[in-house]
Specification:
2 strands, mainly alpha
Length: about 190
């Protein structure tokens, strides 16, 4: 069992990153959609955990990108060029979303003054108190509202993309063409 990827499949580290982050992101999305309907008194602890979960995902995606840069991507066996392009594009867009979701949430919390904290250390989004006004944005309240809207829309988009990704993986598992198995079976 290889830790690193080969041209035939993903290594153990990549597969663990994929599974761990998939579970965390799906969990964060589920909690995010659920907690919107809660009363303010019920939200405080859940929001605090949700914020820390988002920052943990942000940290893991940085580590995952570093790991990915040190590894090759496995070949897609007997795959049309347009499917390779679609698969790689979706993967890249997932990385964008894995940054956009926690960053917009962090900006939203920091602009509202509800900073995530670890061991009583507030984690304020960098430079949030020194952002200058632009024509459209002249208050922390406006910045927080824009970040909240982006976070909400990105959450819906992310859930849709994860659903599409899952359906495509199930389709490839049904075809038994070896593409879906690369993430679950050691082919290195």
């Amino acid at each position: 069992m290889n830790l690193k990827n080969t041209q035939y499949g993903y290594g153990l580290v990549s597969r663990v990153f994929h599974l761990l982050m998939a579970l965390m992101i799906i969990g964060q999305l589920a909690v995010g959609f659920w907690m919107v309907g809660l009363l303010p008194k019920e939200k405080a602890d859940i929001y605090a955990s949700h914020k820390l979960g988002g920052l943990l995902i942000l940290s893991l995606v940085v580590l995952r990108l570093v790991w990915r840069s040190m590894n090759q991507l496995p070949d897609l066996p007997n795959t049309p060029v347009w499917q390779i392009w679609a698969a790689r594009s979706l993967q890249r867009f997932f990385y964008v979303m894995m940054f956009a979701m926690p960053i917009t949430g962090w900006i939203m919390s920091s602009a509202a003054g509800y900073h995530p904290s670890v061991a009583d250390v507030s984690l304020v989004f960098p430079f949030i108190d020194r952002l200058s006004c632009t024509m459209m944005e002249c208050s922390m309240k406006g910045l927080g509202l824009n970040a909240k809207l982006a976070h909400m829309y990105f959450g819906v988009l992310f859930a849709v993309l994860i659903s599409i990704h899952t359906l495509i993986a199930l389709y490839h598992a049904y075809l038994k063409d070896g593409i879906a198995a690369r993430i679950f079976v050691d082919r290195t």
